[in-house]
Write a structure and sequence with these properties.
This protein is an alpha+beta fold. It contains 2 helices and 5 strands, in the order ββββαβα. The longest helix is centred in the middle third of the chain and has 15 residues.
């Protein structure tokens, strides 16, 4: 289950070994996707993609433009052209 934690500017999911998360920052009409992290024990199971997808869908629902800072989010957006606006 992915939780939006707006107080921390983060999307989170409890996974084996800890928390997978994506940190973001909203500035004006832009959402900067800053950093994605998954605990080593949970890597390779799609958790980073899941928190990234949740963050992107939330930002687009807020009519924010996406600015991928993290290489993972940049690659995710290139693999998913449906999120390009």
């Amino acid at each position: 289950m992915i939780i939006h934690n707006p107080a921390a500017n983060r999307f989170e999911a409890e996974v084996p070994g800890g928390t997978a998360f994506l940190d973001y920052r909203v500035q004006g009409d832009r959402c900067y996707l800053l950093y994605v992290e998954t605990p080593p024990a949970a890597r390779g199971h799609g958790h980073a993609a899941a928190v990234t997808k949740a963050a992107i869908e939330w930002a687009l629902a807020q009519n924010l433009k996406l600015v991928p800072i993290c290489p993972f989010t940049d690659a995710y957006l290139r693999r998913h052209p449906e999120y390009q606006r």
